[in-house]
Write a structure and sequence with these properties.
heterodimer, A: two-stranded antiparallel ribbon, 11 helices, B: 156 residues, alpha/beta, three-stranded mixed β-sheet, 9 strands
């Protein structure tokens, strides 16, 4: 058993589960019926990827995959903060979707070459499905970026808010040095982050969206994204909760925002209320 | 053994069997013990537990088989290229356009998958309505000739 593989796979699984949960919240509420279908389907994909990844962790640790998904305490989850943020408005939903799927694509490209054969094979399979998510995100961001000024302005603000926290996806993982040394994680997270930034800044530039705010937001730790997706200064979100002003970092160490507690209550409620239930 | 699996349908598309879909990777027989390796079409396919049970039952019914193990594997990854010619014909007959090519193909600046042939009237005058559909493996299209909405099995 490799002790560096577990935190790596858990971070992937927790990102997919938590963002999949957020996507599923659009079921029945999306602004267009086709988007209701799309976000529900993407949610199902992401939660399915999480399931397969939890099974892989379970094979390494002997844990029950359902318990890993729904039976842990909040600070045992390793998802990045950006994944737990509420959907906010449509602009924030799209901005996060676009940034997350680009980030996911960068790390999956690398993990397809993992020295762990089982992870490499699973990632290969997952990538074939994730392509559709990126196509979906690109289509929407392009449509809104080239559309009327109101939507475009909202998208620009949302992109800045999501950008402020997206770096948390590439926060160092527990045991990363060993995972890189053993080839389980072929590229260090810091290098993946740089590839992600280069790629997305070029894409934003091509879309005619501002790019300078991103490098600024990335450096200014005092700027945090609020629940509504607005970029605000300070250490408090509008509802007075203390948030981690670390540019979206902390998730890989189990440090989550108040938004996660609310999500965790809902997501795990059924599992906790009926231990061992089968259906 | 393979014959027995021809009768196991895809729970979500009962017109095709797990053999038509190319989901059976291998069958290993060691005396009375049989191990079947199944490749799920989509990682998050909710039908996986049903398929496991159905495959195990069908193989257990074969004479001489005492014990069946069904393994789920992503190696090699299932892809739509594994669907057999007869599987493609059955999908079309069922009203689902078979997959085209080997992965999502960009057709326009907004990146929707390629236009496909309508399974009802065979027209190519169709357009994509949604890259997603009622199950993870299907996309939604509309036929501009016979004016029917239809689904396509998504190329992956």
């Amino acid at each position: 058993m490799s002790d560096s593989l577990v935190p790596l796979v858990l971070s992937l699984a927790d990102d997919e589960l938590v963002l999949g949960h957020r996507h599923s919240e659009w079921t029945g509420y999306a602004p267009h019926i086709e988007e209701d279908v799309a976000f529900s389907s993407i949610a199902q994909d992401e939660i399915g990827h999480a399931t397969a990844l939890y099974q892989l962790v379970g094979e390494l640790t002997g844990d029950d995959p359902d318990h890993l998904a729904l039976g842990r305490e909040p600070d045992d989850y390793r998802n990045a903060t950006i994944c737990e943020r509420p959907n906010g408005d449509w602009a924030f939903t799209l901005a996060r979707h676009w940034l997350y799927d680009h980030a996911d694509s960068v790390r999956l490209e690398s993990l397809e070459g993992s020295s762990n054969q089982e992870l490499a094979a699973l990632v290969h399979k997952i990538r074939r499905e994730e392509r559709y998510h990126l196509i979906h995100a690109e289509a929407w961001v392009k449509r809104v970026a080239h559309g009327p000024v109101e939507g475009r302005t909202k998208l620009i603000d949302a992109m800045a808010a999501a950008w402020a926290e997206i770096g948390g996806i590439f926060e160092e993982i527990d045991g990363e040095e060993k995972a890189v040394y053993q080839g389980e994680l072929p590229t260090p997270t810091a290098e993946l982050h740089r590839t992600f930034q280069e790629r997305t800044i070029a894409a934003l530039d091509e879309l005619g969206l501002p790019t300078e705010i991103h490098s600024r937001a990335d450096e200014q730790a005092e700027f945090v994204a609020s629940s509504s997706g607005d970029l605000i200064a300070g250490r408090e979100s509008p509802n007075g909760e203390q948030t981690d002003p670390l540019s979206g970092r902390g998730g890989r160490r189990g440090k989550h925002s108040g938004d996660f507690d609310q999500l965790w209550e809902t997501m795990t409620g059924q599992y906790r209320a009926h231990p061992g239930a089968r259906w | 053994m393979w014959g027995a699996l021809e009768s196991v349908p895809d729970p979500e598309i009962p017109a095709v069997s797990v053999i038509d879909m190319g989901m059976i990777s291998s069958i290993a027989v060691e005396g009375p013990h049989v191990t079947v390796t199944v490749l799920p079409t989509f990682t998050g396919c909710p039908a996986i537990p049903v398929i496991k049970t159905d495959v195990a039952q069908a193989v257990a019914a074969v004479e001489g088989v005492v014990e069946v193990t069904v393994k789920i594997s992503f190696d090699p990854p299932w892809s739509t290229e594994r669907i057999t010619t007869s599987g493609r014909a059955k999908l079309k007959e069922f009203g689902i356009a078979p997959p085209t090519g080997s992965g999502p193909v960009l057709i326009s600046s907004i990146g929707l998958p390629k236009v496909v042939v309508c399974p009802f009237c065979s027209s190519s005058n169709t357009h994509n309505e949604n890259a997603f559909g009622p199950t993870p493996c299907r996309a939604l299209y509309y036929c501009d000739d016979c004016r029917n909405p239809f689904e396509q099995f998504k190329p992956v």
